[in-house]
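Writing this down once: the sequence line spells out the residues, with the fold written below as integer tokens. This is how one looks:
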Amino acid sequence: MLGVHIDDVASAFVVLINQALRLKGSSPVGSPTYHFLGKAEKSLDEVTQAIVRVARARKAIHVAAIENLGPGQAAQIHPWAPMLWGTNCRGRSDRLRALGWEPKGPCLFDALPEMVDFEIKFLAAQDEEHVRTWQTDVECSVKEDMCIF
């Protein structure tokens, strides 16, 4: 999972547009390409662990371990869950970095407290049963030695 700040997305567009102008519209690698943007590669597990740490600090969850769901269980939560949560896709921003792009904005982990606070407020605005179900059905576990930067 790659996390990148919106300012870094904008700067990537500038780098790519400038490169396209220099090459008169052709791709820097000779054919149309995808350019991945990211500050650091983190696994979904690392992101989940970080979210859990913040949610626990906010006393939004009170459980001991993350529950691994199979595709059938995940599909009961959301029909696309097995595809969205179960895919394994890695990407690196090597091509953009070779063109001079460097991410400078805060990383996903820096934004997690604000994101979790938003979700807590959103869930609090939902009906009481929805909030109660969310708080009791989510199981979480955090490795205390995890480094978030």
Observations:
- Residues 108-125 form the longest helix (18 residues).
- The CA atoms of residues 49 and 145 lie 11 Å apart.
- Residues 6-137 form one domain.
- The helical segments are 6-22, 44-57, 71-77, 81-86, 94-98, 108-125, 128-137.
